[in-house]
Structure formats: C-alpha cells, structure tokens
# Entry
Amino acid sequence: MERRHFLQLLVSTAIAGHSLSLEATQQAPAQAQSKLGGSKSPLPWRNWSGSQQSVPAMRVAPRSVAELQELLAAPGHRHLPVRPVGSGHSFSALVPTDGILVSMARLSGVLEHDDSRCQAKVAAGTLLGQLGQPLDAIDQALFNMPDIDQQSLAGLLATATHGTGSKLMCLSGYVTALTLATANGEMIECSRNRDPDLFQAARVGLGCLGIVTDVTLQNTRPYRLRKTTEWLALEDILATADTLADRHRNHEFYYIPFSGMGFTSTHDLTDEPLSATPALDQNDGARDLQKARDYLAWSPRLRRLILGGYMRTLAREQKVAPSWQNYTSDRNVRFNEMEYHLPRENWQKAFREVVDLVENRFPEVFFPFEVRFVQADDAWLSPFYRRDSVSIAVHRFFEDDYQPLFAAVEPIFRRYGGRPHWGKLNTLSAAEFRTLYPKWQAFCDVRESLDPNGRFLNPYLAGLFNDNISHG
# Structure
C-alpha cells in the first residue's frame, strides 16, 4: 500500500460509516496588488493560518524599486507606518499594520550572477519555489532549503528560516550582500565589507530596518540528492539521531503523537539516476491522523496500538532528484506552529518532556512533531547565533485553539535555553529576547539610526524595540 493512503484502511476497520474532511473554506482574500496610491477602500489581510489579521490603510505592490522609493518618500504617506509582507507563512505578529502593507511580489527573479564566485543576486519578492530552475540554468543551486517553498526570499531571510543539516546554516547564513530601502526612500547596499554592522543586522532584520529589494546569495553547483525515509520506534530514532545528523548531509525526523513511532528523513549526495518514486503526501497523512484521533479518542491505548502497529508495516522509501525538488513538499492542511531552537546538548531532554506533556495532557493533538539540525552562524538576530542548534516544532490544526498547548510547551523550551523561530508563535518579551541575544543592543542601535521614528514598526515590534515610538 502506498503511504499516501496512510491509515485509510486501518481507520475504516476501526469505525465504519463516518466521514470527516479537513478541507477549509478559503476565507483569505487574494493578495491584492494595488497601484501606488493604494485601493479605494481598505482590504483586509491575514496570514496563511489565519492566526494574524489586520486591515491596512493601503496595500501596495510596487512594480519597480523606483516606485517603492516614491512610495516611501511621498509626503502624504509619511505619517503612515509601513510593513513589508511576503507570502504570509509566518505565524507571529510581524506583519499586521493599520498603515501601508508593501508586497514585493512584482519584483522577482534572478537579476544577475557571478559564475566565478557561484553567487547570484535575486529580487526580494522571489518565492523560494521559483528559484530552483533559474539557478540550475546558470549552474547554481542553494546550499539548503526548508520544507516549504512558498515563502518569499526577503521574508524567509528576515525570520532566519532554515532547513536541516548539522553542517548547514539557515538561509540567512548564505547572504553575502543585500540592498534595502530606508524610511525616506534612500537605497543602501551592505555586505561584510561595506557597512558591516548594517549587514549583520539586516540578514535577519524582521523587516524593521527597511524594505529589502535584492539579496546576493552564496550558492553551490547543482547537486542531486537521494532522499531516504524510514519508519522507526521513537526510542530507536532518539538513539541514533545525533549520529545520523552528523553522518548525512541532511537529517530530520517526525514523531507521530500517541503512536510511539515516527519517521526519519535523510538526504545524501548521489550520482544515481533520477527516481520516480512517489513522495510522501503529508496532506493525506495529516487528514488520516485526525481521523484516527477522532475515531479512537475513547481509548488512547488502542490509538497507540493501532497507529504504531500500522506504521511498523511501512517500508523504507527512496527518491533521487535534483536538490530543489527533493527538499520541499506541499503543505495544504493549515496549522499554527511553535518552534524553538535548542543547544544540541539539551534537545533530547526537552523533546522527551514535550512528548510526555502532550501525551498526558493533550489527547486532541495529532500533527507530528518535527525535529531538525542547524549549524551556527553569526547574524545578530539569528536564533542560531554562534550556536549549533536543534529545532523542535509543535503544530496545531488551524481550526483548533493552539494557546493551551503552546502555553504548556513553551516553558520547557525556555528552561533548556531555546530561542524561538522569529516567524513562529511565542510569548517572549523584549527583556527575555535581550538575555538570549548577545548582539540585541547592537541591533537596536542600528535600527534606531536607520528609522528613529519607528516607521517600520508595528505594535508587536514596537513592544520589542521601543514602546514609546510614535508615528508622525
């Protein structure tokens, strides 16, 4: 049986005559691209999961950098705060504003490249999924990718989005230069050698230093990966996780709550022929896990027995493909997420506590937990700043109330020295962030010098960087 039919047979044998759908009504409006002057009436915005919403006074999508500069410099707009927006895949309150919401979606693609250095300058609005083929055409590839490819380049860099690989950094670590538009429309270029403090701040800038218009990435030559997926008991996964993370180019694992089982995913460089093996359909898997939860809620023991027993029958799978095709997968079942990045020496203790807590107090949880490995970097607000880390992500179905679960899990992550993903839900204050980031004040100083009136702050960011900022 192919794994995209995961649990369908087993659930039907447990309960007959029931049906359930995770398909959600699409409530979010299409991303509007207004002319520079904005729409005649405010258009609401919400993120992918619906956890963040706002009604901006204007929503604009400049067709050029010059239009962006005109917008920022226009005297009639100077009283309005400005927030950049990507594809809405962040769950935290980075985007909502009652001012001007700026999408860079019209500015996309590879702008230029340097073959001798294997570098490419890319427009900030480019979606990650739009980069694989264009880079391959110029004999380049990204060093690593996350598991969703719908984020905009500027958005994923602003939040230190990452893939997995103990010897691979988050994507911000591969930025060699960038250009941003400041609050008055001035353009500034920076790199390690040109305005290095701004560069170290802007690589993970949260969109509060200015609006990034283009990024230069250090890439590598195209490569092919063999992806291996294997189902194992949780104790077996934990016993080998650190070893496998150092042995393979990429290694991660998912644990299925209330099953005692999970699956590992590894990637290795290969010259083997391309494979047509069907990939795991994680959307079908999530739907089936919800059915199992609902049908077997009356007996957690039976739920564990049936889930675990079925997963033990699933065979190892392999797929060989170009790197950009093997890293990512579609995520059509929406959720909210909390993810913390922990020191490698602490992650297993934290993970075990999270599993115990969820399986004792939250029987309604069915989304898998995801664990990934990330190498240290030196961007000032990178959660991986000078620290090799392991990321642990906990999810809730978007229609469920995520707050009780996340409120219970977050103290565990904090107790073991975790730093939250900037794009994921957390409750940390400015004082708490300051203790986690040695360069916090340096970042604040750069932000203040670029935007003393806080034009690029929304209420959430103002609470982190300056509670007393007033626009005007």
Notes: Residues 181 and 211 are 5 Å apart (CA to CA). The chain is about 30% helix and 20% strand.
